[in-house]
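Q: Okay, next protein. This is cyclic pyranopterin monophosphate synthase from freshwater metagenome. I've checked the sequence twice, so it should be correct. Can you predict the 3D structure?
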Amino acid sequence: MSDELTHLNSAGQANMVDVTGRDITVRIADTSAHVFLSPLAVGLLRDGTTPKGDVLTTARIAGIMAAKKTSELIPLCHPIAINKISIELEITDSGVAILAQVITSDRTGVEMEALTAVSVAGLTIIDMVKALDPMASISDIRIDSKSGGKSGDWKRA
């Protein structure tokens, strides 16, 4: 992996990386996050009785929509063709664990799309339970693994 900052031009100004010469390869990114919630909010999620409706389905859809909009949100992120987005949400004793996988066949990776998916899914959960739990928080937004492209495969230890 190079230590060179590829998003800076020769004058040190931010610019979008030219990926024209890169090979089109299958690229996969797996990310995760956790939303910490009060026992009351966790109980209502488990019972399916939150006042705003189906929190997990809404969060999943929001995450999928967000991944598709990533290049509109992150200034130097390339618009890419996304082949698949999957988001899993699991209610835990401390809140909701969120996992996302994004797959493309393109010239650049999908890490930012997968990170955006878990972030917006988490924000959606908080939006839907904030009246019940104003202390809700999102933590540990991270890349767990990636594959494809010039830099190859990587997995969090």
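A: Here is a summary of the prediction. The chain has a mean pLDDT of 93. Helices lie at 39-47, 55-68, 70-73, 111-129.
Q: Noted. On to the next one.
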